[in-house]
Amino acid sequence: MFTRRLACCMVLFAAVATGCASAPTAPGASGSSPRSPRVSPAATNAASSAIPTAVTAAASPSGPADPSATNAAVRLSGNGDLAPGTYYLDDRAFTNATRLTITVPAGWTTEEYGELYKDRDEPGEVKFITWVLTHVFSDVCRWGAEGTLVDVGTTVDELVTALMEQDGREASAPTSVTLGGFPAKRIQLTVPAELDTASCTNDVLRYWPAPGPDMSDGDCCAPPGSTDTVYVVDIAGNRLVVVARNYPGSSAENRAELQSIVDSIEIAP
């Protein structure tokens, strides 16, 4: 997720062994999680042509583009507050599609490529992010040198099965849905409220690395009680993962807005 796509490395201990390159702060009692880049500097340097960073012409010098300036969907890029409107992602590394379009309400922010937040770092935070995955950790509390990676193949069912079998989160039964016009499976993954993350590797939970697997990147750090609603989408044979995350303190309004972003997804394969 870049999310802080990886805010999981507590110390620069055995960086090669754990695959972590920087030290985050552990999630606080507020339910927020530490920040980290969606794409690590090493990954950016290795694939700079694949990671879009430029802000579109409609953007202000200091923030993301403003759809109201063009009355059309604009490319989501940059960091900061978002004007309400329609945005698109066009990097297959994060969508497995030619274009993924979403409509964003007022009051949301973006950080790195395609991460959206409401009430960032507050108890009521909600989050939207997309992923392309090749592996997950078998135990979200034991990762790096202490953990085991599971190859999740290429199909929707292979990934859903791996997520259901993942230790450290409680999984709902998957349901069949349609997202952006394509078939998908929806599953909810909840961190038990009583889980003590002090017993976990580096005191945080880590769900998966970036594709490859790239251990210097990945998704982690939601606190006990948080829930990820995960959509695994089959886009004409290519697999996309959409994560909508809420926290114990997330308001009904924020959850509804998060769902509205998911419901607004349009996908051009």
Give the termini separation: 21 Å
User: Major sheet, described briefly?
Assistant: 9 strands, antiparallel
The whole-angstrom Rg is 17 Å
Helix and strand pattern: HHEEEHEEEEEEHEEEEEEEHE
Q: Assess the beta-strand content as a share of residues.
A: 25-35%
Q: How many domain regions?
A: 1
Would you write up a description of this structure?
About 15% of the residues lie in helices and about 30% in strands. Mean pLDDT is about 80; it is low at about 1-60. Strands 2, 5, 6, 7, 10, 11, 12, 15 and 16 form a nine-stranded antiparallel sheet that branches. β5 and β6 form a beta hairpin. The chain is α+β, with helices and mostly antiparallel strands. The chain is built from five helices and 17 strands. The protein has one domain.
Outline of the structure:
With about 270 residues, the protein is α+β, with helices and mostly antiparallel strands.
Q: Any chance you could write out the topology, listing elements then pairs?
A:
Blueprint: H1 15-18, H2 41-46, E1 74-75, E2 80-81, E3 85-89, H3 92-95, E4 99-104, E5 108-111, E6 115-118, E7 126-131, E8 135-137, E9 149-151, H4 156-164, E10 170-171, E11 175-179, E12 182-190, E13 206-210, E14 214-220, E15 227-235, E16 238-246, H5 252-263, E17 266-268
Parallel strand pairs: 1-3
Antiparallel strand pairs: 2-5, 3-4, 4-17, 5-6, 6-7, 7-16, 8-9, 10-12, 11-12, 12-15, 13-14, 15-16
